[in-house]
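In the previous chapter we treated chains in isolation. Here, by contrast, the input contains two separate entities that must be folded as one system, with a combined length of 489 residues.
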Amino acid sequence: MLLSLVLAAADGDAVNPMNPEKWVAGTALVVASVAFTLLMWKVWPVITKGLDERNDKILGEIKAAEDARAQAKQALADYEKSLADAREEATRTIAEARAEAQRLADEMKASNERDLAERMARAKADIEAAKKAAVADIHNHASELASTVAGRILQREISPGDQARLVEESIRELDAAGV
Amino acid sequence: MSSTLLAAGTDPLSHVVNTNKTIWWVGEIGFGTAHEVMLVLAGVITVVGLLLVSRRIRTGEESQGNERYVTKGRLAQIIEVMVIYLRDQMLEPVLGEKQTRRWAPFLLSVFFLILTVNLLGMIPFLDLQHFLGMHHIALGGTATANINVTVVFALFAFVAIQIHSFRELGFLGWLDHLTCGLTKGPKGLLLVVPIVFAVEFAGVFIKPVALAIRLFANMMGGHILLATVIMLPSMPQLALEVGGGSWLAISAATGAFAVALTFLELFVAFLQAFVFMFLTAVFISLMSHEEHEHEDHSAEEVREELAAAH
């Protein structure tokens, strides 16, 4: 079809599309020159600058967001580390306090036991002394009473030898009685 | 539209090629054809449109806060998406970051100018003027379906490629590139250097010519096909009775097909603008140091292989 049209054009029936048209070519040259010059001078630098600035802005924002995220992550890590340190410190403090309390309790217990033993020993000694004093006192009263009773019974004064003998007998009787 | 096309004749080529009629007269001096007007219109729309878009993309006042980084307006946002995609996904992998910074303004200018011309060509200005009963055609057609226009665009691509070549390689490096580094290879390969140089030197010119013909042929072919489909019911060869059942049926079928083709043309308009820009970028990248070094390396490998073979 195209060939027949071109051939027809060659026969003069239609305009040959391959005909050189200097005015069309000249117009194209001028239009293209002016258009390219204006576009390359006034348009593309502006568009490129705008696109670059937006690109830089987006990249800058992304970088800032990444930095902020990294900072937040670091802050969280620091906080968690501080928290862990605090927990560790608290645990250690509690353990030390418990150990100190245990030590003090042990010391107090030992001290108390020592005091108790001392007091018990002292009380036993006191009791023993009191017992001995009471026994001696009883001996004295008993001897006096025995002397008195014996004197009254015998209606006479007994001699010191009798008295001593009576006392010893009384003591033996008391011992036998378990006093 | 069919009636206007019927009135316009049965030659689909007449809807595609330049009218070749002088349409603007200042006294006795006439100037301007439909394609020239479309070119000027496309240039103005591209420059003014992109100037307005650039003001909506650029960073606003600080008082606007983060809003100053936001592109305002749907058109500006669409252009921005296209620019970012072309620059970052298409040009940078081919050219590298440094060369993309240098060449993206030119390549994007080429893309948007060609795209505007292509898209303007999608608007049926010629048929609208016929429809409105205008006797003098003021504008219309696709200027990129004119070989004269695409050759000029390719000329810019050629100049850009050569500027890059000489800046990157220098004259001797450029000559060395055209021999594919064979002069540094084994002496036996020197015999083929003239052939390689001739082929590569021809390629310097063939590449931009191919760019011009590809863009021209695609835009021309698509529009001829579209015009042919639309005109089909009125073709004298079919001898259909206008208003008859067959005529109506074929008109409906070709009309639906033409709508589908129009979408295809819309796609082709973007695709060809992209292909022109992208191939220019590829041709520029081929004339870089990296490519040259790569070729040197390849020549070294060839030399090693030859030595091993001996």
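Residues 20-177 of chain A form one domain. Chain A has one domain: 20-177. Compare these points with the single-chain example from earlier in the chapter.
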